[in-house]
Amino acid sequence: MAIIGQNRIDAILNSKPEERRLIFEDVAGI
After folding, report:
1. Whole-structure pTM value
2. CA-based angle 23:25:27, to the nearest 5?
3. Does residue 6 carry a pLDDT above 60?
């Protein structure tokens, strides 16, 4: 499991669903 910084969490919470999916894919290494 990747360690996500607070600023990354804020970015996820403030992002649109499609952006959020890209962030999760990046974190998951897909």
Report:
1. 0.41
2. 70
3. yes
